[in-house]
Design a protein that fits this description.
The chain is an alpha+beta fold. The chain is 30% helix and 19% strand.
Length: 80
């Protein structure tokens, strides 16, 4: 991870923000001591293929909404 001192970060802030926006994290240091890490904010949420990524990988049974219903009713009623 690239490290920039505070003065350099202030001078090149716009360019550094652009780098972070495309996924390049960096550290800002004071006198060589790391102070903060700058990471992309939206990069982790910017994945439109996440929804439906398991489509076709498994089959949901037709009786999914009623599976085990009789056993659950028996447990609540106390009958075996």
């Amino acid at each position: 991870m690239t490290q920039y001192n505070i003065h350099s970060a202030k001078t090149h802030l716009s360019a550094l923000i652009e780098k972070a926006a495309i996924g390049e994290a960096f550290t800002i240091a004071k006198a060589g001591k790391p102070m903060v890490r700058v990471i992309p904010y939206l990069k982790q949420w910017d994945n439109p293929q996440r929804i439906g990524f398991l489509k076709g990988q498994f089959k949901i049974p037709d009786d999914f909404n009623t599976m085990g219903q009789e056993e659950i009713i028996k447990m609540f009623e106390g009958t075996e």
